[in-house]
User: Fold this.
Amino acid sequence: MNSRDFCASLSLIALLGLCFPLLSFAQADDAAPNNPERVVWNKAPIAIPLVVSEERLVHFPDSVSIGLPQSLTPLLRSQSINGTLYLLARQAFEPTRVMVRSETDGPIYVLDISAAPGGADRRSLPDVQVLLQSPQKSRQNSPQKPLQDAGADQSISNNRSQPLGYAALTRYAAQQLYAPTRLIPRQPGVVAIPVNPEPVDLVLGGKIEAVPVATWKAGLRYVTAVKLINRTQSSVVLDPRELRGSWLAATFQHNRLLPAGSEADTTAVYLVSNRRFDAAF
Assistant:
């Protein structure tokens, strides 16, 4: 090999030596958005900003269920699978407080979810990894409980794990619709799910217009609130035997409707089922 070829080989080796580090840094930069944002749960609300039409994942230490306020149901798609929440905003909305409940013996998490329109220069948001404090640190930050409270804590845990009965589900749905905001209960384990707000032929005879308003799920049961409107010029007495569908329980807010146009021509029926409303109907 002559001196000219030797110098050319050295130049090529030096050039490759510079390229490899640059390639490595470029790959690390591309992978950075995939690194999850880690947040330690310390009872302070966790801010979860979203970008409209871009799904964001929130990972929890165990399986969870999310309870959406009724106002947020049409704006946010949420799915909970094996401890991961899949959140997709359909429209922009202001920060809204949402409760996320552990399916085991874990805590109830508080999230402040918001959504903003996306932009051409906006980078994808990373996943969120929610972590729990270590038991030792948690004990240091919280006051010691007397030993006699252990039985009470176990009783509360057992009550939360018991499924809600038909009456409790119906009462919960009615309070969600009619109670003042400050009195609306926060029932662990009950989550709002979307329902198609299109009129359905629920009542036999065609005299009553029925419009699904909201659906909640608790364990393996569903409760759906349906608005009933009298479209005739005569009073109507409602009979649960005239309802189409397969229902475990049906409860009317009022069982008598006055003629159309009067103040009492509208009421609600609460339907408990073991399937979603569209499947039970």
In short: The first helix runs from residue 3 to 31. Helices lie at 3-31, 135-141, 150-161, 166-178, 277-280. The longest strand covers residues 208-218. Residues 101 and 108 are 4 Å apart (CA to CA).
